[in-house]
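To: structure desk
From: M.T.
Subject: fold request, one chain
Message: Could you run this one when you get a chance? Sequence is below, nothing fancy, just the single chain.
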Amino acid sequence: MSWMVTGGAGYIGAHVVRAFQAKGIDVVVLDDLSSGRRGFVTDGVDFVHGSILDGALLESVFARHDVRGVVHLAGFKYAGVSVQRPLHTYQQNVTGTATLLAAMEAAKVARIVFSSSAAVYGTPDVDLVTEETAKHPQSPYGESKLIGEWLLADQAVATGLAHTSLRYFNVVGSGTPEIFDPSPHNLFPLVFDALLDGRTPKVYGDDYATPDGTCVRDYIHVADLAAAHVVAAERLEAGEPVAPVYNLGSGDGVSVAEIMSAVAAVTGIDFAPENAPRRAGDPARIVASGELAARDLDWRMRHSLEDMVRSAWEARRAAG
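Reply: Done. Structure tokens follow.
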């Protein structure tokens, strides 16, 4: 019997797969490799190249691998790009999730851990986001993730589906040098690529109402995130109570300027970031409480900011 990880060849998904392996839980990966990398999947893990939009394929995977639960990470994750590609975003994230849930129902697979996002909150007007903070997504991506949560909740009423959704904030770092974040949109890859190319990293806005004037965000280490998925899956399988949603947040924040200082210290590259104009829609601060996840999912920040930067830098350099 196995758990299926959709999107398991991606940066986050590959770490989740390794976390399951570390607990001795068999895993099968389904990924269309649109953004994932086959090389991120460890030897010995069953890999299926395919899409969550292919219901027949999903049902065959469930049958062949005796799947007992799903961790659903597959989807289109670029919030900014989703504004230009809303139909693609909804197809991948909403239609894809509905297709997956239909295949699960047909195969009597009744447990799912869903990869949601802080994007469901939009620009919150509170210092510390909780699961009850109002949801005002500001992109098709954020909207699609909120709809995904609704689909799970509705399917639970209809079929008894056991589920929980994990809302991520800024996921960084690496649990192994073999896996790096290849995103062309995330802060760490942008800064590292600039330094490796001999360019100066940019800070977008230094006049926010924050201690140093730069945006404050909630950064969490990808290995900590992965571990929470395993605990969530184990609780679902054991029939233990779980909340419908959890914020995986630090309860604290790190500014962009602090990130830049940490990068300079870890890499040994002395640089002063270039100040650029603010980007439209960037809130001054987004930080979430992880108290509920700490209570139920053994969630805690096991890695410091230096750990996050160092592990991410080592993985990026190993990638060449």
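Reply (cont.): The domain at 2-171+219-248 is CATH 3.40.50.720 (Rossmann fold). Let me know if you need anything else for the meeting.
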